[in-house]
Each structure stands twice: as C-alpha cells, then as structure tokens.
Amino acid sequence: MEALFQRNWYTEVRRSGNGLLKAKTSYVDTHREAVAHLTVDINTFVIQEAFWEEQRSSQPIKARTLQVTPLLGSEAYLSSAGVLKETAAFLKDSLATALFSETVKGIIQAETFLLSERGYSSKEDYDSAWMNFYSGSCRYFSNLNRITKTWFDHVGESERTGNLFVRFKTQSFINLGENSYLLIGNLSDSFHEVNVQITLKEGIVEEVNGALLRAPDLVCRESVSLLSNLQGIAIKGTGKKELAGILGGEQGCIHLIDLVNDCIKAIIC
After folding, report:
1. How far apart are CA 52 and CA 56, in angstroms?
2. Which of 56, 58, 7 is CA-nearest to residue 173?
3. What is the per-residue pLDDT for 63?
4. Interior CA angle at 240 toward 239 and 243, to 5°?
5. pLDDT value for 61
6. What are the backbone dihedrals phi and psi of residue 22, each rounded to the nearest 5 degrees, phi first?
7. 167-264 in CATH: which number?
8. By CB neighbour count within 10 A (0-12 exposed, 13-18 middle, 19+ buried), where does 164 fall?
9. pLDDT tops 90 at residue 158
10. Which of 29, 138, 169, 216 could covalently link to 7 via disulfide, CB atoms 3.0 to 4.6 Å apart?
11. Alpha-carbon dihedral angle through residues 114, 79, 52, 112, given to the nearest 10 degrees
C-alpha cells in the first residue's frame, strides 16, 4: 500500500466573551493549508468578522490573511448557503466555501449549549423546534416514532462554558496496486463518530464498509446498510445531491453522506 493523499479538518466553536462566539475550521492536506475564521453575535449568529488565512500551497504564495466582506452582516445559520458560495468567487478559491460552510455547521451544532441566548425556554422547546423544522430530513428525523432517546439524552448535558463544539475529519487516498485504491474517511465530533472505507477497482466501487460509532439513536445506525448502494458505481465526480439519493435521501445519515462526499473529493487520479 502507498498513501497518495490526505486531508485533515478541525472545527472549533468557543465563547469569547462580550457576547460573541469565535469559530474556525483549520484545513491541512498534502498540498495546502488554510483556515476560515468567523466571529458571530451569540444571540443572533450574525457574522461580525470573517477572515480567510492561507499559509501553504503547492503553488508559490505568500502567507496571507484576508477579510471576507461578503459574509459580514449575514447569519451563520441554516439560510447561509447562498452567501457562503460567494466566498469562492471573492477569494478565487473553491476551498473557501467548504471551510466556511464547515465553520457555520459547527456554530449550528454549538447552539445546543446556547438555549437561553438563542431564545429557547427549555431543552424540550429546542427539541420540539428541531423536530418540526427537520422532520423528514434524515434517518433520525424521518423515524421520530421509532427513536428511543431525545437529543439531550444523547448529549448528556446542556451547559458548556468555554469550548462548545469540536469536529475532526480526515480522508485518505491509498494506492493498493493493480489499479486498486482505498478511500478512508473518519469524522469525530462532540456528538457523532463516523467511519467509511471504500475500495475502488479501475474506478468502480468494489467494496464499501462503514460504521456510526456514536450517533443520537440506534435508528441512525441503520443508515450504514445503505452504503452497499455504492457498489458497482464509478463515484469520482458524483455530485453531492446525486450521492445523497444513492445513500437513501431522507432515510440516510447526513454525516455519512458528507463524509463519503469528502472522500470522493480526495480522489486524485
């Protein structure tokens, strides 16, 4: 076996005082290194500061830090997809959208520990709001009649003071020889832990395995069986929307879909 390429992501969301949250996603791969920074109002999640920091690239560059003005004043929440896409054009770098999107996802996840700041009267109020909004969106929210644990049963706490949320992701692309390759993806964060391994033979998925080692409910783990839908598919270049359909749509796991999508983007040949 020969490792050809690796990607590593780290997202962190922290209280910073003065009614603000500091969030960032750091990214390092075989060829480059960059960080997306956001500072948001703790009550409204409106972006106060947005910076792009780049330290290393396969192309000769000077380390740089740039303010990302298109993001200023927008909300770092579920409606931010459109403005996040603008970061790629603004910075002339498609990686920027991915890193700022990961940072916003982290802020959304950190909301679990900001109930009063975000206007929720209780854990039950927060649970109810998310069940209504996300109904039918993934394995968990499409099977609410079958779940055995609430979100806060899974989280096990409702208060954090400094660090609110962390997420690690890695993807590796490995040459097995004889035109065979192995993709390995891992995700571990404050609430979830996911692993996938995809073997390619002449560009076709020959074997795929995975696991949800931590998830909100046992019903989530059933989505792993949908990975078998990838067998026989030439996945390089598969779009995320198409991939989501292959992996079960509303009956799939969004974190598993995201991780497989990240793995596909790690294919370099």
Report:
1. 13
2. 7
3. 64
4. 90
5. 65
6. -110, 125
7. 3.30.390
8. buried
9. no
10. 29
11. 20
